């Protein structure tokens, strides 16, 4: 964990630690008549990795979807950088440099791995460039080997790599990752962990929803715990050990 911590400190210095990437205040969200989020407050600095913890149904995925404008009604404030986005449609939020990797991945079965990778347009903020194909294949050698394979022929782990890689090509610098380690073999989970360390060292800001606490714990700078659509705990990596009894009660970890 010390190596991750050292890289964490270096990347914070390089990315301008202290600058706000995402500020959420009093966020309420609904699906139809169902009121899901109840006054969520959350702050993420540039270059940070922040993890949302909680049991299923706590509101973590809805928080990511609300940031992207994919829920129904939203009220409160969601500032991405200096821009208020609560009234923006999803396509304009994306053009603020936000990339969302949903749990269902959304790989196009009829397209090859590389065709899936080339599909999304550039949506990053002005001046931001997405990763090149060569950079992505360096980060994910499995995808280079399977570049001509159809989406249906990729393993679950390869599909997850591809889902994340598509975002990296767009130029997004704020990444919203929903349960990217779920159901994957340990060797693939390790690859994804190395990817997150690499992205952080390059200045990306990452908000993760994770059920796999062992995956998230060494990677995150700060943690928010959700319950019934509210933030009930927030703490940094230095406080993690002391918070374990609370996490055991809330999450069973």
UniProtKB/TrEMBL annotation:
Q: Which Pfam families match?
A: ABC_tran (PF00005)
Tell me which SUPFAM superfamilies the record gives: P-loop containing nucleoside triphosphate hydrolases (SSF52540)
Query: Which InterPro entries does this UniProt record tie to the protein?
Result: AAA+_ATPase (IPR003593), ABC_transporter-like_ATP-bd (IPR003439), ABC_transporter-like_CS (IPR017871), BCAA_Transport_ATP-bd_LivF (IPR052156), P-loop_NTPase (IPR027417)
Q: Which GO BP terms, alphabetically?
A: L-amino acid transport
**Listed name of the protein:** Branched-chain amino acid transport system ATP-binding protein
Question: What domain of life is recorded for the organism?
Answer: Bacteria
User: What keywords tag this UniProt record?
Assistant: Amino-acid transport, ATP-binding, Cell inner membrane, Cell membrane, Membrane, Nucleotide-binding, Transport
**One MF annotation (Gene Ontology) recorded for this entry:** branched-chain amino acid transmembrane transporter activity
Species source reads Paraburkholderia bannensis
| Ranges of residues in domain ABC transporter | 22-253
Show the stretches that span the lipid bilayer.
none
Which CDD domains would you find in this protein's record? Answer: ABC_TM1139_LivF_branched (cd03224)
- Annotated SMART domains: AAA
